[in-house]
Design a protein that fits this description.
Elements lengths: L8 H27 L4 H9 L18 H14 L1 H20 L4 H12 L5 E4 L17 E5 L2 E11 L7 E8 L4 E8 L5 E4 L13 E11 L3 E5 L17 H23 L13 H30 L9 H26 L10 H9 L8 H13 L1
Parallel strand pairs: 1-4
Antiparallel strand pairs: 2-3, 3-7, 4-5, 5-8, 6-7
Helix pairs in contact: 1-3, 3-4, 3-6, 4-6, 6-7, 6-8, 6-9, 7-8, 8-9, 8-10
Bound molecules: flavin-adenine dinucleotide.
Flavin-adenine dinucleotide (FAD) binds next to strand 1 and strand 3.
């Protein structure tokens, strides 16, 4: 079946590339999930293939993917291994936003990009703490940055640090009491005083290695204090409206696609002797598959429409799209949850068995609810737009 969302030959090539990688990842996704360990080799596979350069500008050796193409690739990649896709998604998304916001000095950005293309660099932002909850709510970090000779010393801890064991560049938020400001600081893997505690043990996205970072007087030179803002204000990295965050719903739609494919194959081949023919002929099964298609097409239409408009928008207009971006996330995320549920209903009791991938999709897809933007915040934005 042709994908109506693919508009150009370049997009087709990117999706085909992602599909090849996705199929390779899928061979070991179950193993990582069962062991609950970080998808180290999966990330190495992707880095060796140059996937870390997907959103790197062509001038720095990357593929220069737009938001739209990035989402197409992520959606396909996640069908094979959603944990690996999410780890890469943070890094690729941040790379995309940095080229638009110029939030890093040009030389630092170029060096990072060239290393990412070569498979040697991976970035993520670690803002979450137990005390603040989701950083998207604007809570002030309890992690502190104290000015010292030549820079800052950072002390505190960060939870949910996805990809922690493989990150080379870690963006950490910290409160600067001397200035009553919040800073974004770049910490390199291996920095003295940085310790990763392997705390990640969840039911969902078990391979993401979203561990706890302990920071004990980690020295950050002044040049790596990337942004200093008032508490609650938006960092420069977010001044583009944060379209890159749509990699999250794309990833979870990928999980839903995998569940859909499994259910359709099952319906076409499972023929219980009470029926004497495949269950795909049964009206209630066809109805559920119809609902899956409705949800999936609606979600993808919304997601890719918003992404296309974001790509086409001017720098000044992109931040105004924040509500539409949130809407796309909520629509796609809820569709993904419902698609996995319907797929499991089609398959029936066998969907519960560890030998089928559906129970993993069921667990993984839940996690998207707790990645930004949060649904209640999006609803508040939509209501404000309607009422004010
Ligand atoms: C798979 C996965 C990967 C992640 N990776 C990263 C990462 O790499 N980096 C990172 O920084 N974080 C990461 N996170 C963490 C994520 O960004 C959130 O910080 C985390 O999920 C906690 O969000 P929460 O909504 O449960 O927490 P909270 O914000 O504490 O919310 C908990 C509950 O309290 C309510 N609540 C709390 N505060 C408010 C408020 N001010 N107004 C209204 N309601 C409120 C919420 O509605 C919710 O019901 C990841 C999360 C997941 C699931």
């Amino acid at each position: 079946m042709t994908d109506a969302r693919i508009r150009t030959e370049e997009e087709r090539a990117i999706v085909q590339w992602a599909a090849t990688l996705s199929d390779q990842l899928s061979e070991r996704a179950k193993e990582y999930d069962e062991a609950g360990v970080f998808v180290y080799d999966q990330i190495e596979l992707l880095q060796r293939a140059g996937y870390g350069g997907l959103t790197v500008p062509k001038a720095y050796g990357g593929k220069g993917a737009s938001l739209y193409s990035f989402l197409l690739a992520q959606e396909r990649l996640a069908e094979g291994d959603s944990s690996a896709a999410l780890v890469m998604g943070w890094s690729l998304g941040i790379t995309l936003s940095l080229q638009d916001t110029h939030a890093w000095p040009d030389a630092l950005f170029e060096t990072f990009c060239r290393e990412a293309v070569a498979g040697r660099a991976l970035v993520n932002a670690c803002g979450s703490e137990p005390e603040t909850g989701s950083p998207s709510r604007g809570g002030r970090p309890t992690t502190q940055a104290i000015a010292c000779d030549g820079g800052y010393q950072i002390t505190g801890h960060k939870t949910w640090a996805t990809g922690s064991l493989k990150l080379t560049h870690i963006i950490v938020t910290a409160y600067i009491p001397d200035l009553d400001r919040v800073g974004e600081f770049l910490i390199r893997q291996g920095a003295p005083g940085l310790m990763i505690e392997e705390t990640w043990d969840t039911m969902s996205m078990r391979g993401t290695g979203s561990n706890t970072l302990h920071l004990n007087q980690v020295f950050v030179p002044a040049k790596d204090a990337l942004d200093i803002i008032e508490p609650g204000a938006r960092a420069r990295r977010s001044t583009d409206g944060s379209g890159w965050l749509l990699h999250i719903p794309a990833t979870y739609l990928g999980v839903a696609n995998a569940a859909r494919r499994y259910a359709i194959d099952f319906a076409k081949t499972y023929a219980p002797n009470s029926l004497g023919k495949p269950i795909a002929t049964v009206p209630h099964v066809r109805d559920k598959i119809g609902r899956i298609e409705l949800l999936r097409d609606t979600a993808r239409t919304t997601l890719y429409d918003v992404a296309a408009r974001y790509d086409a928008a001017s720098d000044a207009d992109r931040p105004k799209m924040r509500t539409d971006l949130g809407l796309a996330k909520v629509v796609a995320m809820n569709a993904a949850l419902e698609i996995v549920d319907l797929a499991m209903r089609v398959v029936g009791g066998q969907s519960l068995w560890k030998s089928t991938p559906l129970e993993r999709y069921y667990r993984d897809v839940r996690a998207g609810l707790h990645n930004p933007p949060m649904e209640d915040a999006v609803m508040a934005q939509l209501a404000s737009r309607a009422l004010e």
